[in-house]
Amino acid sequence: MVEIVRELRAKVLFDRGRRPAFRTPDGRHVDDQQLDHGAWHFVAGAHPGGPPLGYIRLSTPLTAALFQSRAFLGDVEYERILRDAGVTDAETFEHSRLVVEHRARKLGLGAYLNAVAIGAAHALGAKMMIGTSGTKDGQHEFHERFGFRCVEGTRRYVEQYTEDVVIMCHDVAAGAGEYDELVTRMRAEFPALAAVEHLPAARTRHERPKSLRAGADTTSWRPVLLTPAVAADRDAITALLDSGQVREVHDSIETQLEELIRSREPWLPPHEDLTQRRAEQLGGLDPWEYGTWVHYPWSQRLVHVLPREEFRLVRTDRNRGKIERPQQRALLGKRIGVVGLSVGNSAAVTFALEGVGGSFKLADFDAFGLSNLNRLKATVHDLGVNKAVISARQLFEIDPYLDVEIFTDGLTSANLAEFVAGLDLLVEECDTPYAKIAAREEARRHGIPVVMDCNDRGMLDVERFDLEPHRPLLHGLIGDVTADELEDLTRQQKVDLILAMVDAERISPELRASFGELGRTLSSWPQLASGVALGGALTAEVARRILLGQECVSGRFYVDFAELITPATNTAGSLV
């Protein structure tokens, strides 16, 4: 849509050759402005999905540094005007680029578009609006009818527009002049208007709209971290915003700074004014320059966060009392491998939330399917995406400073050594017998502890190969079977082996009954989200103990809700 409105603006501004700057030598109409990103765009047409006939842009305080009026006046004069009006940057919106096709000018679109932008600014909390206006055809007089006033001494000739341009300001409290009733109506309608998106109608009921033909991003998983205090990164942020790859900018740095201050000084009263402390923390930088801007290409979001150490200090502040700062730092120095990212996804996400591990290796060959939505914490827009990719995205959206590697072929004989190398802990949650045994063989060879949750009866398995280098795999339940012997098993042999691994005598009646129905009435063995969530909690608890050198022995343990939540275990007693 941005490219469509840019072309529309350029065509109208070109005005049959009156403003040649808006057409390139090869005949293209161009009006590319960085200010388009992070702004509201209002487009008018004859009907939803039809060609645009008119347009206006409303820029919010988020992009105040890029306002046309600021560039026109210079920072000093711009800030003087705001100061004289008694408003701040945070209270000032800019409206610009009001254009209407020649064939539609008799429809009154200009007045309605102006009213929509002004009403939206009112609804969004503006105290003042500012903008540039041409004067050749009386545009400034048109805006005066909406309550705008020309700022004395700002009129001057601009070559690009081939006319005199003047700065105009609108005091929200003073109303909208002769169009006050229309603006008031548009302000009331703005919330509903902002929630509506129209797709072009398909030609036939069997033909999808063009806007539905683009494929989703199923491959990107690593965010881009940019530090605006560094010149090259500052340029990269500008280029990113210009590229059209950002659909949403999220900046809560002021709130994050307050949380940082309070995490360091928890004794401060709740309503203490932190203005001076924030300024000291910024050290002379503008808020937008502080910390890191993180671009997530799969969601096209650009998010502003604190610098790494400060981000992690605040993010894990409420772990204190259970995980103290020295322990937090020790855990962030650990590297964890997770194989199988259904139950393993719950483990990886819980680890990241809790700060257990600063580096992760994730392996899964499978794509996320609709039937996985019963237990894997993902969404419908993740369908078809590799589970390792989904998990990496989720981890980076919790902590963009993590170190993550992914193996989208799963765990294979070709990548096994690479995957296990350098790990401090391995979480094994895959369904393939070969991978389960091969992972343990390699972990035992390197003295790496292995943790597994069975997703049935809360069964937790711990193998401390770091303390017991000759310990039998899976506590000897499968004998001396090696991974090389498992690659060509039949389906029934795989089922028998897995039953041995999980100790068939101890599994729940429901799981035991399901094995005979696999491939008949059941497509796979049953798993529930509650069991997967429990598995994430159990593996995180054990991982934290192991990595911090706390007591945790090898063995198999059960956190069985069927046994734990019964009348006999009720500690509250009866109210009858």
Short précis:
This protein is of the alpha/beta class.
Mean pLDDT: 88
- Counted by DSSP, the helix tally is 19
Strand content: 15-25%
CA-to-CA gap between the ends? Answer: 66 Å
Q: Tell me, briefly, the overall form.
A: elongated
Query: How would you classify the helix and strand content by structural class?
Result: alpha/beta
Total beta-strand segments: 18
Calculate Rg over CA atoms. 31 Å
Helix content: 25-40%
User: Which residues sit in consecutive blocks of at least 5 with pLDDT less than 50?
Assistant: 196-205
Biggest sheet character: 7 strands, mixed
How do the helices and strands line up, and which of them pair or pack?
Layout: H1 2-14, E1 39-45, E2 52-59, H2 68-73, H3 75-85, E3 92-100, H4 109-123, E4 128-134, H5 139-144, E5 148-150, E6 156-158, E7 163-171, H6 180-194, E8 224-226, H7 231-242, E9 248-251, H8 253-264, H9 275-282, E10 292-296, E11 301-305, H10 308-315, H11 325-332, E12 335-339, H12 343-354, E13 359-363, H13 387-398, E14 403-407, H14 416-420, E15 425-428, H15 433-446, E16 450-453, E17 459-463, H16 491-502, H17 509-515, H18 529-547, E18 555-558, H19 561-564
Parallel strand pairs: 3-4, 9-11, 12-13, 12-15, 13-14, 15-16
Antiparallel strand pairs: 1-2, 2-3, 4-7, 5-7, 6-7, 8-10, 10-11, 16-17, 17-18
